[in-house]
Amino acid sequence: MPDHSTTVAELKDAVRRFADERAWGQFHSPKNLVMGLAIETAELMEHFHWMDCEPSRRVTDDPAKREQVAEELADVACYLFTLSNALGIDLSDSMTAKLVKNAAKYPIEKYRGKYEA
Predict the structure, then answer these.
(1) Angle made by CA atoms 10, 12, 17, in degrees to the nearest 5
(2) Mean pLDDT across the chain, nearest whole number?
(3) Is 1.10.287.1080 the CATH number for 3-90?
(4) How far apart are CA 109 and CA 113, in angstroms?
(5) What is the per-residue pLDDT across 38-87, written as a single tens digit (0 to 9) for each?
(6) From CA 112, how far away is CA 97, in angstroms rounded?
(7) Distance (Å, rounded) from C-alpha 15 to C-alpha 36?
(8) Nearest partner of 40 among 81, 96, 5, judged by Cα
(9) Burial, 82: exposed, middle or buried (Cβ in 10 Å; 0-12, 13-18, 19+)?
(10) Virtual CA dihedral for 106, 79, 73, 92, nearest 10 degrees?
(11) How do the domains of the chain map onto residue ranges?
(12) Which of 48, 61, 79, 107 could tie 37 with a disulfide, CB 3.0–4.6 Å?
């Protein structure tokens, strides 16, 4: 299921089916899912901890490290999709709206190539 041919809805359905087959919905409160998401994000962060920016760009050059990072990234995505299912939030709509908001907040002519708080 590569990115270019898989929809967000298909991924959310796959995650939902996986959890349903195991009767895990009873544990999937928003609180528990957000906590799980934070934990999995921290596990992903461990692969980059104490690393400068440039070396962090090359972490996945090592095939074994790439696989580990990919697994942690997938764990983060699974929690995110499960949370959006639990809350009934359409991620595509939410992301589109947020990008519109960010475009207004960070106009290209002011922010291209630079960061300002």
Answers:
(1) 95
(2) 96
(3) yes
(4) 10
(5) 999 999 999 999 999 999 999 999 999 999 999 999 999 999 999 999 99
(6) 21
(7) 15
(8) 81
(9) buried
(10) -40
(11) 3-90
(12) 79
CA dihedral (5, 11, 12, 17) positive or negative: positive
Cα–Cα distance for residue pair 65/71, rounded to 1 Å: 10
Contact 52, 58 (CB under 8 A): no
What residues have CB less than 8 Å from 57, skipping those under 6 apart?
none
pLDDT tens, position by position, 6-29? 999 999 999 999 999 999 999 999
Burial (CB < 10 A; 0-12, 13-18, 19+), residue 100, is exposed
Q: Which two tokens stand for residue 57?
A: 């760009």
Contact by Cβ (8 Å): 47, 68: yes
Two structure tokens written together for 38? 């934070």
Among 30, 25, 39, residue whose Cα is nearest residue 76 = 39
SS3 category, 64: helix
